[in-house]
Every structure is written in structure tokens, then in C-alpha cells.
């Protein structure tokens, strides 16, 4: 297979299994590059990429920017908080103004679900979705699955539990799509109020008991509570949530197996995960961060091959 089957990366649901495997193979190569003394390659030397973040982000924005610079692309950073968007300019107008500067690719995070898909139909540039509302976060799901593959040799046949605020998480939905395409079994776990009503239609197991989820799975992906997206109270207190759904070192020690712990960040230590778990040998959280740069390099490189 010579390239991706898609022009844009809008969501995992649009990718084939072959697309994901190609991204992983390309990321393997780039991971070697970023571990060399000279970490840059001239692959995207003639490509200009605009990072448009309409929501606050630290890790994802830095990861994309580093990936772009490692590939020698020209980079423009755009922050909505300091832009004409605050003055009422539409999304299409904003992006068209940026594209008039001869930008080839747009990496966008937006609070509205479907913003990337909308944009891809109205502007002539390659769009990479860096998170749209509570919908999808495709590069996070790719780096999560890539990290599992790296640690366990394969994703196929593995049992992955996604634990926490499933209702408001774009990471959860993208992970479910990616893990299923790669042959894994998926369980979601959290308070009943934070599990979407129709989640079973996505062919996932559901439990509200953390211990049973941990006993079932090979990998536990711990999600933080998305307080900034919650307009009502979904559980009594953070302390009660931590008592029922927080992963502790004691729980890990009581399990009769080697469980892999993941977290997309930022971590709320003492809520969904305690410090001794986050810093334990079971956790591959920092591996996820490093793999995020390699995965984003792979995605940008493969999509740039479609620049006309």
C-alpha cells in the first residue's frame, strides 16, 4: 500500500485497518529518527502547516508543533483567544484568511463536534483533527494503540478497559474505533451517569465496578474527569469518585498479573490515578507522550503526499 485511503484525518471511523497499520509502520521509522542525535529530516521542507487551536491545549499542541518541526515544515501557530474569532469572524473566513497565506495543511482543535469535517468541505487544504468537542481525537487513539502494540507486540486479542468520564471524552470514542479495527476487545467503566446510554451499540462491554474491569483487562486506560465540559453534577464529590473509580497502588498489588496503565493526560493525581500508580513501572504514560510525536510525524508525512 503506497498511501492513505483518506485525504484528511478527521476521525478514526474514516480509516481502514490498512491505513492504521501504514501509520504505525511509518511511525516506527520516525521513532528511530527522533532518537538520533540529529532529530530532523527534510521530508516536509516545502510544506506550510497552520495549527489552529480554538480550545486550550498544551500537550497536543506541543506534540504537533514538535512533529512539524522535526519534519522541517514551516509552522504557523494560531490562538483563537487572541484572534478575530473573538470579534465574530466565522470559522471558514478565519481559515480562508490563513490559507491565502499559502498554507497547505491545517491542524485544528475546536470545541464543536464535526468542525473538522465541516471545514474539509469548505476550504482547499488538508485538515487534521486535533480534537473536536466530545467527538473524536484520532491522533490520541493512534498513539494509544501504537503504545499498546509496542509494549505487548500486538493489539489483536488484547483486552483494553477505558475507565472514567466516557460521556464527555473524545479520546474514548476514537480509542473504541481504533482498538476494534485492530482486533482488541474493549470495556468501558465508570459511574452510570458518565457512561453514554447507547454505548453498547459500539460492541463494548460495560461495567460500573472498577475492580472487575481491572481483573478483566490487559490494559487500563485511565481518563480524567472532564469538569470543563460538564454543565450538571454527575457524581456527588471528586473524593467519592476517587474512592470508587480511582486506581491506587494497593489495587495494582492485589491483582495477580502485570497490568499496563495508560493515561492521555493531563493527570489529576489522587482522583482517577494516584501518584504511586502514575510513577510505577506499570505506567507507560511517558511512552505515550514520546509515541505521540512519532505518530503525528507519520500522519503529517503521509497526508502531505496528497498535497496538490
Your description of this structure?
The protein is α/β, with parallel strands linked by helices and about 300 residues long. It folds into two domains: about 10-135 and about 290-305, 3-Layer(aba) Sandwich (Rossmann fold), CATH 3.40.50; about 140-290, Rossmann fold (3-Layer(aba) Sandwich), CATH 3.40.50. About 40% of the residues lie in helices and about 15% in strands. The protein is built from eleven helices and nine strands. It has helices spanning about 15-35, 60-70, 90-100, 115-120, 140-150, 170-180, 210-215, 240-245, 250-255, 275-280, 285-305, and strands at about 50-55, 75-80, 105-110, 125-130, 160-165, 185-190, 205, 220, 260. The strands form two sheets. The chain has a five-stranded parallel sheet, with helices on both faces. A four-stranded parallel sheet has the order 2-1-3-4, sandwiched between helices. Helix 2 (about 60-70) links the parallel strand 1 (about 50-55) and strand 2. Helix 5 (about 140-150) packs across helix 11 (about 285-305). It starts with 16 loop residues before the first helix and ends with a helix. The model has no long low-confidence stretch (mean pLDDT about 90).
Amino acid at each position: 500500500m503506497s498511501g492513505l485511503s483518506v485525504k484528511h484525518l478527521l476521525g478514526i471511523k474514516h480509516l481502514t485497518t490498512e491505513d492504521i497499520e501504514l501509520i504505525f509502520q511509518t511511525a516506527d521509522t520516525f521513532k528511530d529518527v527522533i532518537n538520533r542525535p540529529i532529530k530532523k529530516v527534510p521530508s516536509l521542507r516545502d510544506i506550510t502547516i497552520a495549527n489552529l487551536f480554538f480550545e486550550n491545549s498544551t500537550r497536543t499542541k506541543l506534540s504537533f508543533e514538535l512533529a512539524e518541526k522535526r519534519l522541517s515544515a514551516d509552522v504557523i501557530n494560531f490562538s483563537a483567544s487572541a484572534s478575530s474569532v473573538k470579534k465574530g469572524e466565522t470559522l471558514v473566513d478565519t481559515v480562508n484568511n490563513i490559507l491565502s497565506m499559502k498554507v497547505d495543511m491545517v491542524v485544528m482543535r475546536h470545541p464543536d463536534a464535526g468542525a473538522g469535517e465541516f471545514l474539509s468541505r469548505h476550504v482547499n487544504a488538508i485538515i487534521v483533527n486535533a480534537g473536536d468537542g466530545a467527538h473524536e481525537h484520532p491522533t490520541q487513539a493512534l498513539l494509544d494503540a501504537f503504545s499498546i502494540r509496542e509494549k505487548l507486540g500486538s493489539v489483536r486479542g488484547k483486552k483494553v478497559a477505558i475507565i472514567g468520564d466516557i460521556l464527555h471524552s473524545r479520546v474514548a470514542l476514537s480509542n473504541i474505533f481504533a482498538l476494534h479495527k485492530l482486533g482488541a476487545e474493549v470495556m468501558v467503566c465508570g459511574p452510570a451517569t458518565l457512561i453514554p446510554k447507547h454505548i453498547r451499540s459500539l460492541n463494548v462491554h460495560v461495567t460500573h465496578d472498577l475492580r472487575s474491569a481491572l481483573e478483566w483487562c490487559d490494559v487500563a486506560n485511565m481518563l480524567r474527569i472532564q469538569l470543563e465540559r460538564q454543565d450538571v453534577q454527575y457524581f456527588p464529590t471528586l473524593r467519592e469518585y476517587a474512592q470508587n473509580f480511582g486506581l491506587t497502588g494497593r489495587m495494582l498489588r492485589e491483582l495477580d498479573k502485570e497490568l499496563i496503565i495508560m493515561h492521555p493526560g493531563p493527570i489529576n493525581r489522587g482522583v482517577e490515578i494516584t501518584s504511586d500508580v502514575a510513577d510505577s513501572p506499570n505506567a507507560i504514560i511517558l511512552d505515550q507522550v514520546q509515541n505521540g510525536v512519532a505518530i503525528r510525524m507519520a500522519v503529517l508525512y503521509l497526508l502531505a503526499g496528497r498535497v496538490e
